[in-house]
Amino acid sequence: MSRYFATAAIVQAAPGYRELRITICEQGKADDVALIAVRPMYDTPDVLAAFGWRLVGSLEYVAGPNEERAEVEPCEPADHGGAEALRDAVRREIRARTRARLLVDSSARHFQPVLLGGDHSADPIGWTFVAGVNHDRGHGWVTSTGTVSRGPRIATRADAARSVRHEYMTQMTEARIEEADDSAAYA
Predict the structure, then answer these.
(1) CA gap 122, 134 in Å, rounded
(2) 172-175, long-range: CB within 8 Å, 24+ apart, which pairs?
(3) Coil, strand or helix: which one is 185?
(4) Does 109 have pLDDT greater than 60?
(5) Rounded to 5, what percent of the chain is helix, strand, coil?
């Protein structure tokens, strides 16, 4: 039977943004079996369970590289609401990154979440990113619903984040107006 090992570390993913990265490797193989990257507000065992991995024993802290390591084994993914919400959040971010790279610029990188409720919000309303090189370098954005910036690049990440918040509020207002119109039609 194959043996799998997980390594978890909180890393500086981009300037001002940290994430928990968990890699899973099969013993004797060079390539990773899985890479899971989430906001550092989650515990490693919970993330592993959400994506179908169970600890064999306990996590061991390794001071030099400042990471945790453990043997893991595949299992059925956890089926409670928090696990599904975590998987859904990861899927939304992957879709957002893909849309930005396909529709805006294939060089899009350094994605950072835009949170409506502060740093402790679990659910980003969108992401800002850096695109372009040299003089054409700037920021773009993509919402969690898939809307992407189509205009010229934005000078700062803060301005791109304001654009995400504006787009989110516009979508919320439009949804409330449509909901009110639907309610009036059935009254």
Answers:
(1) 34
(2) none
(3) helix
(4) yes
(5) 35, 35, 30
- pLDDT tens per residue, range 1-32: 679 999 999 998 877 788 899 999 999 898 88
CB under 8 Å to 39, separation ≥6 — which residues? 19, 20, 113, 122
DSSP-derived letter for residue 108 is: -
Q: Which residues pair with 126 in a beta bridge?
A: 114, 143
Q: Cβ contacts of residue 55 below 8 Å, gap of 6+?
A: 6, 45, 48, 70, 71, 72
Q: Which residue has the tokens 């300037």?
A: 15
Interstrand relation of 53-62 and 67-74 (parallel, antiparallel or unpaired): antiparallel
Instruction: Sort strands 32-38 and 53-62 into parallel, antiparallel or unpaired.
Output: unpaired
How far, in Å, CA of 139 to CA of 119, rounded?
21
| CA distances from residue 184 to 63, 98, 119, 181 in whole angstroms, order as listed | 62, 39, 38, 5
Query: Does pTM surpass 0.90?
Result: no
Strand partners, 164: none
Helix (H, G, I), strand (E, B) or coil at 37: strand
